[in-house]
Write a structure and sequence with these properties.
The chain has helices at about 10, 15-20, 35-50, 80-85, 105, 125-135, 150-155, 175-180, 210-230, 230-250, 265-270, 275-285, 305-310, 315-330, 395-405, and strands at about 55-60, 90, 95-100, 110-120, 165-170, 190-195, 290-295, 335-340, 345, 360, 365-370, 375-380, 380, 390, 415, 420-425. With about 450 residues, it is of the alpha/beta class. The longest helix is centred in the middle third of the chain and has 18 residues, at about 210-230. The radius of gyration is 22 Å and the shape is globular.
């Protein structure tokens, strides 16, 4: 027997337990599993007839906190222990320089908006990750707030879409708990977590001839359990099952197969996990997925060995992010896709005695591109040492409001939590960065 009381033979007609867990994603809780195909086709036709097209977002998450001075806010005139070992280079926009490690992005500067005035208050990895994903400090009001991916899934996603509305890729298995928490939005807005973009969705076999009959039996078992044991876990299982069936039925799962890209296209992004993640993100937004998060770890550079390892990350970012932006533009997707580059905070201006930089949240940088964002500019300014914001500080609330506005989401909207508590999508007092929409 399975842990849900159903015979294992009934569950086996869909996928193994391991495959079901791999396909954890947003679903349609409470919807019949065996009778939804006609509804899906009808709704898809209606949307096509109305010409509906939502915006999408690709978040390139630099886990550990990249140094703003070593990336997008260099200080070439500062003393050596501040400016570090990387030189600055000119970009396609006169007066704006970035790290020498980003020559491709320097050439694309007219498409990028550098937010050099980020200023937050959380310098602990765990708390800062939550803060930058939700716009709320952990524990505020006792509410479990959803991350940006889950929020976009709820606001822009389609409940009956064949593909998930939120995908995260590139994170090691022990990191997924952080990314998959949908907060008060519930399991319908969990992401599909894919650790290796090169492997795609494995083990999606064509259904058996009597698939519908077997599915009907399983559905009866599920309903019986749900009537007796209605719970969040049961709902999560139900949504996973529904999404698994939907993916099995749909040829859109091919969007996860990078081998369908020409060798030259794969080469352009780079033969590494981050490059493949960026290519997968482009394929998914092209197929209609509204939110994809690509994870790149090892930016936590407290010591010299970590700095040396981090050097290999920067060319990966330059190549992968550069190819992504060019590809989105070539395919007519750039104006409808917001690309975000960020981590949870920056690093100290002063190189420490171990040859690295420590956590720093008072002044740091993020990057936005696409979705109508006005590129070719830097917003905010730090002092000569990158230690404090001297012009246009950008709090997390304004950053989140900006992202929402670019995606066409009402950042001031009030929603009800399952417990009946009214909360705003973005904390009260948030204001989008006007310079980005001029």
């Amino acid at each position: 027997m399975s842990s849900f009381g159903a015979p294992r033979s009934a569950l086996r007609v869909l996928a193994s337990r391991r495959e079901i867990l791999k396909l954890s994603a947003a679903g349609i809780a409470g919807t019949s599993l065996s009778g939804w195909l006609g509804t899906l086709a009808a709704r898809a036709g209606e949307q096509a007839a109305r010409g509906q097209k939502h915006k999408s977002c690709i978040l390139l998450w630099m886990d550990g906190g990249p140094s703003h001075i070593d990336t997008f806010d260099p200080k070439p005139d500062a003393r050596a222990e501040v400016r570090g070992e990387f030189k600055s280079i000119d970009t396609a926009v006169p007066g704006i320089q970035i790290s020498e490690k980003f020559p491709t992005l320097a050439g694309l500067m007219k498409d990028l908006a550098l937010l050099r005035g980020m200023s937050t208050t959380e310098a602990d990895h765990g708390r800062a990750r939550v803060y930058m994903h939700t716009g709320y400090k952990p524990g505020v009001g006792g509410v479990d707030y959803p991350g940006l991916g889950s929020l976009v899934s709820a606001e822009l996603g389609e409940a009956d879409a064949a593909l998930p509305n939120f995908v995260v890729t590139g994170a090691p298995l022990n990191k997924y708990e952080f990314f998959t928490n949908p907060g008060y939005l519930g399991p319908r807005h969990e992401p599909l977590a894919l650790s290796d973009p090169a492997k795609g969705l494995e083990n999606l076999r064509p259904p058996a001839v009597d698939f519908d009959d077997r599915l009907g039996v399983l559905e009866q078992l599920e309903r019986g359990f749900a009537r007796t044991y209605r719970s969040r876990a049961a709902e999560a299982h139900e949504t996973m099952l529904a999404r698994t069936v939907r993916l099995i039925r749909s040829d859109k799962a091919k969007a996860f197969d990078l081998s369908r890209e020409p060798p030259g296209a794969r080469e352009a992004y780079g033969d590494n996990g981050f490059g493949r993640g960026c290519l997968l993100a482009r394929r998914l937004v092209e197929a209609g997925v509204p939110f994809v998060e690509v994870y790149l770890q090892n930016w936590d550079i407290h010591e010299k060995p970590a700095v040396e390892a981090c050097k290999a990350l920067m060319p990966q970012v330059d190549r992968g992010m550069g190819a992504l932006i060019r590809d989105l533009k070539d395919r007519g997707l750039f104006d409808s896709t917001l690309v975000i580059w960020m981590g949870e905070f920056g690093r100290t201006p002063m190189v420490n005695r171990n040859g690295g930089r420590d956590h720093y949240a008072r002044a740091w940088s993020t990057v936005l591109a696409g979705a109508g964002i006005k590129g070719g500019q830097g917003v905010g300014k730090t002092d000569a040492n990158g230690a404090a914001v001297t012009e246009r500080p950008i709090p997390v609330t304004d950053f989140m409001a900006t992202v929402c506005r670019a995606l066409g989401i009402d950042y001031a909207k009030t929603v009800q939590t399952p417990g009946g508590r009214p909360v705003k999508l973005v904390e009260k007092g948030a204001t989008p960065i006007a310079e980005l929409f001029a």
